Amino acid sequence: MAKGKIKVTTENIFPIIKKFLYSDHEIFLRELIANATDATKKLKALSSIGEFKGDIGDDTIEVTLDKKAKTLTVKDRGLGMTEEDVKKYINQIAFSGAEEFVDKFKDQEDAAGIIGKFGLGFYSSYMVAEKVQIITKSYLDESAVIWECDGSPEFSLNKHKKEDRGTEIILYIDDDSVEFLEEARIKTLLDKYCKFMPVAIKFGEKSEWIDNKKGKKDKDGKVEQEEIKVDNIVNNPAPAWTKSPSSLKEEDYNGFYKELYPMNFEDPLFHIHLNVDYPFNLTGILYFPKISANMEVQKDKIQLYSKQVFITDSVEGIVPDFLILLHGVIDSPDIPLNVSRSYLQADGAVKKIASHISKKVSDKLEELFKKDRADFESKWDDIKIFIEYGMLSDEKFAERAAKFSLYKSTDGKYYTMEELTKKITPAQKDKDDKLVYLYTNNVEEQHSFIDAATTKGYEVLVMDTHLTAHLVGKLEQSVENTTWARVDADTIDKLINKDEEIPSKLDDKEKEKIKPVIEEVMPKGKFNVQFESMSETDQPMTIVQPEFMRRMKEMQATGGGGMAMFGGAMPDTYNLVVNTNHPLISKILKEKDKKKQAAITKRTADLALLSQNMLKGEELTKFINQSLELI
Ligand code: ADP
Ligand code: MG
User: Fold this and answer.
1) Which of 130, 426, 563, 582 would be a feasible disulfide site paired with 174, CB 3.0-4.6 Å?
2) Are 192 and 244 found together in one domain?
3) How many domains are there within the chain?
4) Among 258, 253, 246, 291, which residue's Cα sits nearest to residue 272?
């Protein structure tokens, strides 16, 4: 019988493990099963090189609960440990960093980080157990041993009669951790951390219905069913991302998506299978999910694994910012996963990985675009939000996306930026040779403006995401002498000013005279009255929302940088554009009867408000009633 002291430089590590690592107690199960998985894979590796000649047999890892004895056991059929191994790997190595650990992480709660960094994997079991036993028999022909330690630095190590190869870790669950004796709790944890671990994991049994063995039939002549108990295997040891892309079909990818997100009923739009060996090791599958235009962003949908062991699903700072909107799995043993979040974000390897993923995604998008443009176009409305977000947050991505990002016109055609520019250049340059891109964010509400533009042969683009203001700002800056304007930002002749001046019927003095008359009938402070010399057949008054202020407001609402200077919410600003050549305006000017003058003005302004959907409530009712009286 051997007795000894675990080599710790700090008097007692266990209270520290318990106290400082409280936030993530549950990960002990992941650590133990990951060790069991490692041991099993190592044995297979030894077998494949002829170092182990015996029969591996059934290598299923088994998790069992004994509520009476208050134990949780993880049992594997891996390579096991000799007495020397236990001394070396359990007694010494684990605590080599103890002192450093205590110094550095006293105030930290990031348990996952500390555990990985200091090799406390096995010892994390003391977060939930008052005593732990290891019963293990090595694949090398030696006697089995039992190691036991109750959380003090003393342990015991003795021979044991266990005959089959492998390791059993028995946790005597502490009174304050009895939740881990609940089947449901363990089920949840296995599903969270072990769903795709590479060795089968059994937890209890489940029912299955099969044709009864005697071939008994019911009265309808159908074979009767019989209930049998089978092993309940909780994981899929060979998930799709570990397979070669050429061996997988579309339905396999969609099936795996369902496996990852059982609550998502819609198929993803498409996937990207990542498979990188150099300069780092990374595999995974990313999915573009179907989301609605108003961007119900579901972050934290990408799951991060290290050799099929679940690490985290909050991947901010690890994958490129904009890919947070994607779903799927990334698996890399090269990401230093077990250290804290802030460390991860600053890590050079992580940054490289992020930019690599970004490149892979743009490559794939370009490939899809080139291969089948019609199909790509049919998906565009669903994926544009990801791409716009990517273009805004990642300069490199924006450069690459120039080749495949599309712009949809109001007649349903899709253009690349190059095609679009070529198409509109002849017609949409203004008198200063500036190229004007026109867009709408609401085809129905802005239809009169769209009509005015298309009648002139202009192209109007549908840009209707929350990011539009940011995006057009970026596009404007990236090409000299271009500008973007929403169709309702001004009258069309002002938006693309061709310098074809129509002589005005009103002079400045007359404009000064009519201005207060109009201001009098409009709601206070919301509209600036402006005059424009338009065609007689254009509307007498039009309400427009100037591009610059509107865009600023939108950017502020979606969190644009540098908007803070405006303080609180910016007000909406509108211009009321008066057509100086319309007969009705001349009529208002000439009307001597003040009451009548105000009435005509009000009605003309109401018409403008009405066409902008801005005549509401009582005012609208009044307008309708007056109209009815005319009939
Ligand atoms: P790590 O897994 O990072 O090496 P752990 O504390 O989890 O650190 O485990 C320490 C060592 O104990 C392992 O490297 C391994 O040699 C040994 N070990 C732990 N669990 C098992 C097991 N189930 N079978 C065989 N060896 C094990
Ligand atoms: Mg481990």
Assistant:
1) 130
2) no
3) 3
4) 253
Q: How far apart are CA 189 and CA 502, in angstroms?
A: 75
How far apart, in whole angstroms, are the C-alpha atoms of residue 380 and residue 239?
Answer: 29
For atom 23 of ligand 1, the residue with the nearest CA is 36
Same domain, 23 and 165: yes
Domain hosting residue 326, numbered range? 240-355
Mutate to test the pocket of ligand 1, among 38, 63, 77, 162 (most ligand atoms within 8 A of CB): 38
Cα dihedral across residues 129, 133, 139, 140: positive or negative: positive
pLDDT, residue 302, reads: 87
| Paired residues of 271 in beta bridges | 287
Q: What pLDDT is recorded for position 555?
A: 82
Q: Could you identify the residue written with the tokens 């959907």?
A: 613
88, 89, 101: residue to mutate for ligand 1 pocket, most atoms within 8 A of CB: 89
Q: Is residue 161 one of the residues assigned to a domain?
A: yes
Reported pTM: 0.76
Q: Where are the alpha helices (DSSP H) in 125-230?
A: 183-193
What is the C-alpha to C-alpha distance for residues 492 and 507, in angstroms, rounded to an integer? 22
Positive or negative, the CA dihedral 252, 253, 258, 261 is positive
Two tokens at 455?
């009648």
277 with 323, same domain: the answer is: yes
Q: Which of 405, 564, 562, 391 is nearest to 467 (CA)?
A: 391
Q: Is residue 278 part of a domain?
A: yes
Residues 21 and 127 in one domain: yes
Q: Say which residues have a Cβ less than 8 Å from residue 505's Cβ, sequence separation at least 6.
A: 533, 580, 581, 586
| Residues 273, 164 share a domain | no
Question: pLDDT averaged over consecutive 10-residue blocks of the chain (631 residues)?
Answer: 54 58 77 94 93 94 97 97 91 54 52 51 87 96 92 87 97 95 97 95 94 83 88 96 94 94 83 85 90 54 88 76 83 67 63 83 92 94 88 90 95 95 94 94 92 94 90 91 93 86 90 93 88 90 90 77 51 89 94 93 92 87 89 84
Q: Which of 160, 184, 204 is the last residue of a domain?
A: 204
pLDDT of residue 512: 93
CA 120 to centroid of ligand 2, rounded, Å: 8
Nearest CA, atom 20, ligand 1: 35
What letter represents residue 436's amino acid? Answer: V
85 falls within a domain: yes
- Report how far residue 56's alpha carbon sits from residue 612's, in angstroms, rounded to the nearest whole number: 77
CA 123 to centroid of ligand 2, rounded, Å: 9
Identify whether residues 188 and 49 lie together within a single domain: yes
Q: Which residues have C-beta within 8 Å of that of residue 100, sequence separation ≥ 6? A: 118
Nearest to 376 by CA among 472, 264, 288, 466: 288
**Distance (Å, rounded) from C-alpha 572 to C-alpha 620?**
21
